[in-house]
Each structure stands twice: as structure tokens, then as C-alpha cells.
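Lecture 7 notes: from sequence to structure.

We start with a single chain of 466 residues. Read the sequence below before looking at the structure.
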Amino acid sequence: MAQLWGGRFTGEINQLAWDFNASITFDKRLLHEDVKGSKAHVSMLAANGIISETEKDSIIKGLDEILAEVEDGKLEITTEYEDVHSFIESNLIKKIGDAGKKMHTGRSRNDQVALDMRLYTREQVLSTAEMLYNMLDVLNSKMEENTETYMPGFTHLQKAQPLTLAHHLGAYFEMFKRDALRMQDIYERMNYCPLGAGALAGTTYPLDRNMTAELLGFYGPTANSMDSVSDRDYLLEYLSALSIIMMHLSRFSEEVIIWNSNEYRFVEIDDAYSTGSSIMPQKKNPDIAELVRGKTGRVYGDLMGLLTTMKGIPLAYNKDMQEDKEAAFDAMDNTQHCLVLFTDMMRTMKFNKDNMEKSAMRGFTNATDAADYLVNKGMPFRDAHGVIGRLVLYCIDKNCAIDDLKINELKEFSELFAEDIYNAISLKTCVEKRLTLGAPSPEMMKKELLSNKEFMEDYKKNFLNK
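Now the structure, written as C-alpha cells:
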């Protein structure tokens, strides 16, 4: 058992207790961050005369060699070690001798692990932001291609009013845009360095916390040493944001699943993102969309688990906080996998435009426009609403659309109907005359697409290219 403590103890820890206490099986993914943090720490120690330049150089060389040996498979991270920190330090001492024992000067595992997790999470925030950008890029391209692809809009899963596929996809663009902005918000709040906080009360060594913060790309050091080692708000914010991303993906998946059904046939999912049945040869199942929908609950669980872990912890550090990593890693991995797969599925998905348009025409989606037609002829809206309601019942009995009725049939419901009714309630007219900001008309969609492009350019320039 390789550990960083033991002088206080005279007996061996129980093996089961050791395994229960150890975190090496999951915190080994913080190897790069731990090496990066240690290199910055010893650089600062040398700059402030706490260790010599020779010792610093020896430590940094040893750390680089350990990292290279792990990556090459020459050195294995095993459960002999309690955590990734003890793995690195033990192997460094074996490699360079006593100089390796000075690496931890002025540092606690508390601020060390706080730093590692913050460094790792910061990169994951940027990776998630990049994936969201890719999603937005695909959605925007599909929108550009479908500004005149008519389809029914729904409320209560019932056909409501006609719109375009571009407009429908634009709603998801707005959702994922907010998700992308949340990544930027999280980054801005979390990008402060806890290194130098020690166990909870700082240290008597003359550490330069501003230097280590600058070396590691932070805006500056964290303000309070107790908060530095016990803060997991940035993780909770990130997991909350991931949960919202998953909620958006799940809603989108639900629609893809419905659109893929035999009853709708709005979309054709590429074979690369579908599976078949072991018994029914005709089946082509939307399994990727279904799994995305299913994994949403898993990410929610990771967030709730961490919230519950943190709710009763007194200041400052407590071992409970070790439980942050598995939940966070699971949420990060699953959300990012879902984003990549769903984006690629959307990129290769084909839309059955004829089926969408026919569905809009057969769903009385132009009923509101028919009522507005009567209003424009002088009838009060509430009366027009009643007339069109009775007209819809008549069409249901005849199994036809409003557009299919002859003018004399329409006049039985109101003498205000004239030949111009057919143009007034065509899908094209219904969509094109919706000219309020954010509506589905091609004119408004041009403005929306321009706004999308400007947002993406600004986001890439000012955040992704940090």
C-alpha cells in the first residue's frame, strides 16, 4: 500500500477499509492535471526560494517521464496506490530521490485535488461547448435548407398550426444556444485557482498564489482558503447545465422517435444510427434516440447524488467530497457521448418533406387562419371561432380538409366566404403572412438565420478560441 500518510499510525489499515477509502480506480483520469498542477507548484516554489532551481528541474523532468511512461504503457497505475497523487509522488521519489519529497511542500491533498478537479472540469466545459457549437452548426444548416418545408406545428401532440421545419428546428437552436451560453457562464465563475489554500488555512510558506494561477491559465487565485478546498459549486453548476442539455436532447429525441414512426414517416434515420429487430425483419428502430432519452435520467441522478452529498458537509474538507468524481465523470461522459451521437444522427437524417406537408394539410392546421379570414371580413373573432369549429366538425364527418370544400358548402356556414378563401388558407399563405419577430415566415427566418450566424461567429471567437 503506497500512501502519503502513516507516521501517526502504528497499525495497518484493514484491506477492505483501504479499498473503500481509495480513489485510484477513478481519479487516475486526473493524471495529466495532477502533473500540470505539480509542475506549476514547484515552479512557484523555486521562484520564491523554497526549493532550488536544480530541485525544480529534477522534479519537472521526473514528472514528464512518469507521464510519458504511463502513456507508453511502461508504467501502470495500479490499486497499490491510494490515489493518483500518491501514485505520482511515490514514483517520482523512486525516480529522482529526495528531491521528489519536496514536491508537496506548502501543499495539501485538499488543495491539490481541488485544483486537479477544477482543471479537468474546465477542459470538459470547453469540450462540451465545442460539441454544442457543432450541434448548432448542424441545426443551422438544416434550417437554411428547409425555410419552405411545410409541416404541422403541435400543441398537446395534436396538430395546431402550419409552420416550417426550419422554424421547428430553430426552437432547438435556441435551446442549445442557451446551453452554450451556460458553458461560458460556468467557465467565467470557475476559472480561479485553489492551489495554495493548503488543507484549509493556507500555509506559512511564502507562496505566490498569483503566479501559480497565472501559470495554470486562471484569472487569479480563489479568495478564501476554506472555500477553496470545500467548494464544489462549479461542479454542481456544470452538472445542472449538463442535465438541462440532456433534457433538451431528450425532448428532441422524443420527437425524432415519433417522426420516425410508421404513422408519421417524417424522417428517415441513417442506418448508422439505427438498429434492427432479432425477430422482426422489417424493423428499423431509433435506438440511439431512445438511449439518449434514457440516459437523461442517469445524468439527472448524477446531479441529485452530488447535491445530496454536499448538502450536510460542514467546513472545510471532508472525505464525503471524494464522491464528487464518479458522479461528475459519469455525467460528463454520458452527456458528451449523447451530444456527439445525436449531432451526427441529425447531420445524416433525411426529412420526408412530402409527408410533412400532407400531414399539415390534413390536420386542420389552417383553421385559425380561416377564422382570421372571417375576422378580416368583419366578423367578431369569437363568432368566427364558432363558425370554423362547426366547419371542422363538418369536414371530419366528410373525411376531408377545409380546402377540399366547394364555395357553396363554405357559404352554408357563412356568406362572408368568397373565392379568395382558398388562397388565404393555403399552407404557403398561412406561413408567409406570419411576420411577427420569431415567426415562421421566410422573411423572419432570414433574420433568424442571420442572427444564428452572428451568434456562432461571436461564440467561437470570444469563447471557443480561448
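The CA atoms of residues 92 and 100 lie 6 Å apart. Keep this in mind for problem set 3.
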